Each structure stands twice: as C-alpha cells, then as structure tokens.
Amino acid sequence: MIWAIGDLQGCYKPFMKLLKKIDFDPDRDKLWLVGDLVNRGKGSLEVLEYVYEHQKSIQIVLGNHDISLIAAYYGIKTANPTIEPILNSPRAKELTDWLRNQPFLYVDNELGYCMSHAGISPLFDLKTASKYARSLEKKLASDDAARWLKDILKKTTNYLNYGTTDKEKETFAFSSFLHMRYCFDDGSIETSEKGTPTQNLENKGLKPWFLYPGRKSIEQKIIFGHWSALGFYEDDNVLAIDTGCVWNGKLTAVRLDDRAIKPYAVECNN
Question: Which residues of 230-264 are buried (b: 16+ CB within 10 A; e: fewer)?
Fold first, then answer.
C-alpha cells in the first residue's frame, strides 16, 4: 500500500497513532510526506529520526519549516525550543545533511501523482517545475549551501512575480514550492494570506493557486500540504492533506494506490 500524510510539524505521537490506524508496515508499504516534518510540535527530533531510519520506505519533499531547520543549523535563522533538540543532538549533522539532500518536487508517473509542499505554480508545466526543483536541490545539497540559502531567504517576500533574471525566477520557484497559497491574475504569489478563500480575497484579485484560470495543465494529480486553514480538499487536479495537526486539528492520511480517495484521520492533542 502507498500512503500520503499531511504536515507533521513535530507531532510525533499523532504520527505514530495514525501509522497504527492505517496499519503501516515499512517493510511492506510506502509512505509519502508532504513536508514540514519539524517545528512547533513537541516531537520534532523523534519525527525526523523515525523518517530517517525508515527512509527506504518513506518519500518526502521539503517544506518551509524543514528549510528553517536547515537555516538554523547554519546559523542563518534563530532556533526555537522545538527544533533545539535536533540541533543539540549528536546526530545533528547527519540528519541535516540528509534533509538538505531531499527534493522539492517528487513525481511518480506510474502512480499518476506528484508532490510538493505548497504546490506547483500555475505558471509552470511539470517540465518547468521539475527543472527548477532540480536546480534548487543541487544548490541546497552543495558545499555552498549555507551561502546560497542565506541569499535566497533574503529575497523571499510576501509578494513575488516570476521576474526576468535567473535569480528572480529561482526565488519565485523556491517560494512556489514552499510558501504559495494564493495567486493574483498574473500568476504572481501572495504569501501573507493564510486563511480560507473568501469573496473579499477574490475581490482583491486573489485566487487559490490551483484555481488560477490560466493554470498550465499537469497530467499528474498534485498532492500538497502547507495550508491548514484550507484543510482536506480534493478535485480532479489536486489533493490537499494538511489538516492542522499542530493546531490541535487532525493528522490525515490517504491511500494513493486506491483511486477512491478516502481520508483516514486521528485527532491531535499536542
């Protein structure tokens, strides 16, 4: 069986509870995680260690909180109490080096799904998205990762358009994979709005990225998280599975090798 689970954000106990509920066996099954493994929850180290130990059975993509952990490891960002156990662990380098070698985008053509933490910019077809993902992954995994990450994080703002230079395009792709929720009519990204879609936001020209009228067609169904206020959402093109566990919501799993999409969830109390 192949399962996907929404944003964990360090919620280790609900994670274990959900794995038990779906009878996940790492020797038999596969698990996709939409990113944000760590931060805010009480068990960030335990989550990261579990995923690392079972990496042959688990496919992840990087989320914005995972990037924040890497940045804290390099001293680019200030750590907080929920990720300090990771940074203080004797395995900090091992875990961080593994994390920064993980993808921003994962594609399974046979299964008919692709996965990115926040989604795929509506301006990108899958070929373009994959090109930018590979470029970002190469730089994050390089010996120059700290300098590159410090530079690109400085450029991340609440509003980004596609730009014209290679650096502007790279920053746009980086934010698309990690921070995107709403887009304007020109496909530019607005990341400060985190709530559910409303008529007021639509009047401002903001639409959920997956409802952008000119969105480039992608054959594979896009699995994403990042948007806890949106919650579980499915249409013909996308599957959103962040149901706000760290906010005392739920942690949700779906079985990907069963076309009858059915959410399996556990209540979260951190």
Answer: bbbbeeeebbbbbbbbbeebbbbbbbbeeeeeebe
Dist CA 134 CA 242 (whole Å): 25
pLDDT score for 99 = 98
Q: Is residue 162's pLDDT more than 70?
A: yes
* Out of 42-46, 226-230, 244-248, 260-264, least confident range: 260-264
What is the reported pTM? 0.96
Could you state, in order of their start, the residue ranges of all structural domains in the chain? 2-267
What are 207's strand-pairing partners? 183
Q: Which residues contact 187 (CB under 8 A, 6 or more apart)?
A: 121, 122, 123, 161, 162, 212, 214
Strand partners, 240: 224, 233
Question: Which CATH superfamily groups domain 2-267?
Answer: Metallo-dependent phosphatases (3.60.21.10)
Q: Note whether 121 and 115 are within 8 A (CB).
A: no
